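Predict structure. Chain length: 78.
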Amino acid sequence: MIGRDIGISVNMSPRQFRDPGFINAMMRALSNNNLNLQLLELEIAKRLLLDNSIETAEILRGLDRAGIRLSVDDFGTG
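Prediction complete.
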């Protein structure tokens, strides 16, 4: 249908995800391009969820506060 918004899922590498400026860069990119964050889903590797680091937990909380959806990539493999 013409004029209909579609969602996009973006695969994030662990290196990108752990970057201290990741959330700010993501929010700037969305804002600068007038993109609806409700249409964005980030795919993160299962191993990031298993990482008990404080940095990973803070990034996950920040994404949740921003309303960015996450999906788990490679779930059930390895």
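Summary: The chain has a mean pLDDT of 82.
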